[in-house]
Amino acid sequence: MKKTMQFSQHWIVVTGASSGLGKAIAIQLASKHQANLILVARRVEKLEELKHSLEKNYSVHCKIIAADLSDINNIERMFRESIQNNEVYGVILNAGITYFGEHQQLRWDQFKKLLATNVSGIVKAVELYLPYLTDKSQGGGIMLVSSVAGLLPVPYQAAYSGSKAFITHYGLALNEELRGGNVSLTVFSPGGIATEMTHSSGLAAQFEGSAVLQSAEQCAAEAIKAMESRRALYVPGWINRLQVFGARLLPRSLLIFFAGNIYRKALEAKRNSQ
């Protein structure tokens, strides 16, 4: 059995680190685990602010990489720059985008960007980091941030839900292939999180302030614990776990019907708020 991961003084890559869950994970890795961080996102000014704050407040080392992870060339550049002069121990692939609305209104260019960010970019990053971590033999690990939407089909987020289903199945299958090796792979599947992405997508119009949305800080703590203990799959929050458990008992058609009603109301609320 692999030992639990030890983040202290190790370099951890965190994508999507400029806001939301990625930022919360980075802050907690620095403040509670004294990890050194390679912060990756598109918005360089946000990364600079976070780097300055973490280094000043927690005496850790940080490196930033500005990259759009829907671009395979940027994935390759991220890998090269992250391992330059640093020995990477862990990789948290958190960057992702969503679309909330009727699928027929999703433009093809939007779908391609969603697919490139949520699927192709993740697979490419794993392809690069996994052999590196294996060769280093440090007992490191990778965490893929998926979603409960990858376990339960979600109407009005059909493309997003499908992309996360791929990541969930891909990650769990790969985890089994890595059994007995020195690198672990964790699939972390949160439900709704009170983040910038949730707010900008319009989902917050229906769910903000309810128990359905976890705080980014609470979710981050559970994510780090799941990776640290090398869980194959972890769903944070009792409501989310109850949903997943219920999915084993109820017919899939009924679950999708219930979800459709909830998200239809959320879409109506989004339209009314505009």
What can you see in these coordinates?
- With 274 residues, this protein is of the alpha/beta class.
- It is 53% helix and 14% strand.
- The protein has ten helices and nine strands.
- It has helices at residues 20-33, 44-58, 72-83, 108-136, 158-177, 196-201, 204-207, 216-228, 238-247, 252-273; strands at 11-15, 36-41, 62-66, 88-93, 141-145, 184-188, 193-194, 214-215, 233-234.
- Helix 1 runs parallel beside helix 2 (44-58), helix 1 (20-33) packs across helix 8 (216-228) and helix 4 runs parallel beside helix 5.
- It starts with 10 loop residues before the first strand and ends with a helix.
- The mean pLDDT is 89.
In N-to-C order, the SSE pattern is EHEHEHEHEHEEHHEHEHH
Mean pLDDT over the residues:
89
How many β-strands, per DSSP? 9
* Individual helix count: 10
The N- and C-terminal alpha carbons lie at a distance of: 53 Å
Helix content: 40-55%
Strand order of the largest sheet: 3-2-1-4-5-6-9
Structural class: alpha/beta
Q: Report the biggest beta sheet as strand number plus sense, adding barrel if it closes.
A: 7 strands, parallel
Give the low-confidence spans.
none
Query: If you compute it from the alpha carbons, what radius of gyration comes out, rounded to the nearest whole angstrom?
Result: 18 Å
Overall shape: globular
Kindly estimate the percentage of residues that lie in beta strands according to DSSP: 5-15%
